[in-house]
Each structure stands twice: as C-alpha cells, then as structure tokens.
TrEMBL record:
Domain annotation SIS: ranges: 36-221
PANTHER family linked to this entry: PHOSPHOHEPTOSE ISOMERASE (PTHR30390:SF7), SEDOHEPTULOSE 7-PHOSPHATE ISOMERASE / DNAA INITIATOR-ASSOCIATING FACTOR FOR REPLICATION INITIATION (PTHR30390)
Domain of life the protein comes from: Bacteria
PROSITE patterns in the cross-refs: SIS
Protein's name according to its UniProt entry: SIS domain-containing protein
Xref: SUPFAM superfamilies: SIS domain
InterPro entries (UniProt xref): RpiR-like_SIS, SIS_dom, SIS_dom_sf, SIS_GmhA/DiaA_subfam
Pfam families: SIS_2 (PF13580)
Length: 251
C-alpha cells in the first residue's frame, strides 16, 4: 500500500498516535489499571460509558473473548452509538442537562464502583455531568478524552468545565480538535477520523493493565473465553455464575 495514498497515510497517522499515547500516557494507563485492580479486589463493579461514537470503545471491552468479565456498559437510551433516527437526536441528547443524573439514579452503580467515561471533546453536558454526579456518589471516575479540546473549544456544560476537570484520573487520547487526520485537494473538509482506533486501544490497554496487576497480587481475574472454541461457553457460564452480582449484561 503506497504511503502517499490516503489509506496508507491514515495508517501512518493512526500508528503515530498510538505510539504517542504509549509513550506519553503510559503512567496514566498504568494508574488506570491500578484503579481497575483496586476496584475488583475490593468487590466493586466496573462500568464504561460513552455517547455516540464514543460508545464504541466503551462497548469494545464489554462481554468479549479475552476480556475481563466484570466490565459493564452503562447505556443511555438514544445515546449509545448511532442507533436512533434521526442520528442527530443522539447528538442533541448529549447536550441535555439532567440526563446523566437520571441515568445514574436508575443504574446499579454505587459507592466503591469504577466508571470510565469516554468523550472525545469532553465538552457536552452528558459526559461532564456523568462524571460530576458519579463522583458525588462515591464512584471513582476515569476520563478518557482529548485534552486538546479544552483549549480549542468552549464547554457546553453549565459548570463551564470539561470532562477532564471532573475525574479522579484522566487519560488523553491525543486526538486533534475535529477528529480528522487527512486533507486532500478536491475534498472540502478534513477526513479519516482516528479516535475510535486510538481510544479502543487505550481501553484495551487499561483493562490489560488491570488484569496484569490483579495477577501480580495473586488474584485470578475473571476472564471470558471465546464461545467459538471448544469449552468456551461452559467456561463463561461458570464465570458468570461465580461473579453474577457484578455482571449486569446477563439475565
């Protein structure tokens, strides 16, 4: 694949961002792993949240082969992915004051749990309020966001702050304002967003750090296996039975 072609240039951009995150955010990713391990060791529960396309990295660590079984998605109706019509409704819901608090009131989250809030811009009411309200309830919050948006845009939250201002720990995905890596003659706007690739990699790295730390402490992490390998379903049924009080995506 020619590096001068858009496809090759996108791979180069994404790889460059991944290297930058690895080198510059390594300590924060390790700290996130410690928070995950601390929560699991103390009997707490793990949740992830993201709205719109930020829900994709949140979903990526939930109920999957090779994943930590205790990762749960905190869904907000109409804001998970682009499954609403019109799609612009999902964006509008991110700007609704009070929605995050209402969701938390109806969720199983409680003091001692851990919530990872993912928002590329970190400027909308929903993720900021989610972090603020969660911490008021004694829930630890990891914010996964682009810190650059805080200097390149204005907040849409009544507090005037960004997600990064209301977390116990922040991991910066280094994505530039606008989330588009390429430009080309004849194309009227920048294109080829890399936020999903990079943020999903960060999520997997944080969970991997937590798994590794649990193992180092002598605590066996409850892992899921692929249902497409022999014995996988039997393994997963036992894990879900053993940890059913901390898994919220099964009946």
């Amino acid at each position: 694949m020619s590096e001068s072609k858009p496809a090759g240039r996108f791979f180069d951009a994404a790889i460059g961002l991944l290297r930058q995150v690895r080198d510059e955010e390594g300590e924060h990713i390790a700290a996130a792993g410690t928070l995950i391990a601390d929560t699991v060791a103390a009997g707490g529960r793990l949740f992830t949240f993201g709205a719109g396309h930020s829900s994709l990295p949140a979903q990526d660590v939930v109920y999957r082969a090779g994943g930590l079984a205790l990762m749960n998605l905190l869904p907000v109706p109409g804001a998970v992915g682009v499954d609403v019509v019109p799609a612009t409704l999902g964006s509008a819901l991110e700007r609704v004051d009070g929605l995050a608090t209402t969701v938390l009131d109806s969720s199983p989250l409680r003091a001692g749990d851990l919530l990872i809030v993912i928002s590329l811009s970190g400027r909308n009411a929903l993720p900021v309020e989610m972090a603020i309200s969660a911490r008021e309830r004694g829930i630890k919050v990891i914010g996964l966001t682009s810190v650059g948006y805080a200097t390149g845009t204005t907040s849409r939250n009544p507090s005037g702050g960004f997600l990064k201002d209301h977390c116990d720990l922040v991991v910066d995905n280094k994505i530039a304002v606008g989330d588009a890596e390429l430009t080309a003659d004849g194309v009227g706007a920048p294109f080829a967003p890399a936020s999903t690739v990079v943020t999903s990699a960060i999520m997997q790295s944080m969970v991997a750090a937590g798994i590794g730390e649990l193992a180092e402490r002598g605590i066996e992490p409850p892992m899921l296996r692929s249902g497409n390998v022999d014995g996988g379903h039997e393994w997963n049924r036992k894990v879900m039975a053993d940890y059913g009080d901390r898994i919220f995506y099964r009946r």
